[in-house]
């Protein structure tokens, strides 16, 4: 059969099933690594029994270097650690969108690995990653200048230092979620307002350290809000 027919057939199989098919022969291995199957990896719909572990992540991302989108937001990914992010960094240099919502085991080490290897990252969701601190965000900002959408909601360790780094390094940023970041103050908002000409959407819910004056300052510095 022509390759296009085989690819159509393989499209009906799950990630786990294609991983098994790839071991049948060399030709199938090549076909199962085709970029149309690996442009996006969503662990919410990954047909693997039980929880998603670092070992499973390693086996999945190793199949293709063309993965552009990875979603770890499923509750089944609660055991994902920095080790998984190191695997992603090693195998997915062209990553553009990464969702780590609710992954409380992720630290600055894993975030740093992603930042240093995935410079084309455009969208990153870190909501609830409570172990991430200013150090991790500073590394991210310095290595990923193409960021357009960033969620830091309920990252409770973040301070104005994170906003200062983001404002200076991420000039393409359009959407920023800071909801629940209780250590952010007017000082950070002031820094953000200086370099926020592209910002169109910001969430400041439950940021108790920001005053009306700070919001007004941001509004003047971000005309597209």
Instruction: State the secondary-structure class.
Output: alpha/beta
Number of strands: 7
Shape field: elongated
CATH C-level of the largest domain = Alpha Beta
> Can you name the CATH architecture of the largest domain?
Alpha-Beta Horseshoe
Chain-averaged pLDDT: 92
Describe this structure in words.
It holds the Pfam family DUF7885. Keywords: Ubl conjugation pathway. This is F-box domain-containing protein. The chain is of the alpha/beta class and 225 residues long. The chain has 2 domains: 37 residues, Monooxygenase (Up-down Bundle), CATH 1.20.1280; 184 residues, Alpha-Beta Horseshoe (Leucine-rich repeat, LRR (right-handed beta-alpha superhelix)). It is 41% helix and 9% strand. Strands 1-2-3-4-5-6-7 form a 7-stranded parallel beta sheet. Helix 6 links the parallel strand 2 and strand 3. The termini are far apart. The mean pLDDT is 92.
Secondary structure topology:
Layout lengths: L2 H8 L4 H7 L4 H7 L2 H4 L1 E3 L11 H8 L7 E3 L10 H10 L5 E3 L8 H10 L5 E3 L8 H10 L5 E3 L8 H10 L5 E3 L8 H8 L7 E3 L8 H10 L4
Parallel strand pairs: 1-2, 2-3, 3-4, 4-5, 5-6, 6-7
Brief account:
The chain is α/β, with parallel strands linked by helices. It has helices at 3-10, 15-21, 26-32, 35-38, 54-61, 82-91, 108-117, 134-143, 160-169, 186-193, 212-221, and strands at 40-42, 69-71, 97-99, 123-125, 149-151, 175-177, 201-203.
Question: What labels describe this entry?
Answer:
225 residues; alpha/beta; Monooxygenase; Leucine-rich repeat, LRR (right-handed beta-alpha superhelix); 2 domains; seven-stranded parallel β-sheet; 11 helices; elongated; ubl conjugation pathway; F-box-like_dom_sf; Leu-rich_rpt_Cys-con_subtyp; F-box domain-containing protein
């Amino acid at each position: 059969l022509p390759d296009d027919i085989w690819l159509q057939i393989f499209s009906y199989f799950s990630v786990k099933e294609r991983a098994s098919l790839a071991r049948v022969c060399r030709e199938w291995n090549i076909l199962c690594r085709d970029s149309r199957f690996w442009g996006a990896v969503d662990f919410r719909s990954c047909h693997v029994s039980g929880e998603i572990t670092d070992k499973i992540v390693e086996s999945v991302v190793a199949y293709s270097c063309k993965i552009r989108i990875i979603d770890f937001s499923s509750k089944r990914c609660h055991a994902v650690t920095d080790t998984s992010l190191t695997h992603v960094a090693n195998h997915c240099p062209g990553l553009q969108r990464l969702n780590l919502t609710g992954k409380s085991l992720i630290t600055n080490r894993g975030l740093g690995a992603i930042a240093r290897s995935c410079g084309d990252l455009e969208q990153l969701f870190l909501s609830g990653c409570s172990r991430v601190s200013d150090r991790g965000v500073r590394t991210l900002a310095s290595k990923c200048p193409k960021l357009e959408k960033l969620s830091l909601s309920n990252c409770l360790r973040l301070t104005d230092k994170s906003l200062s780094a983001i404002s200076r390094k991420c000039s393409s940023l359009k959407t920023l979620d800071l909801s629940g970041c209780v250590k952010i103050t007017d000082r950070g908002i002031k820094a953000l307002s200086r370099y926020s000409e592209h910002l169109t959407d910001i969430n400041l819910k439950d940021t108790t350290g920001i005053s009306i004056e700070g919001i007004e300052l941001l509004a003047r510095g971000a005309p597209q809000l």
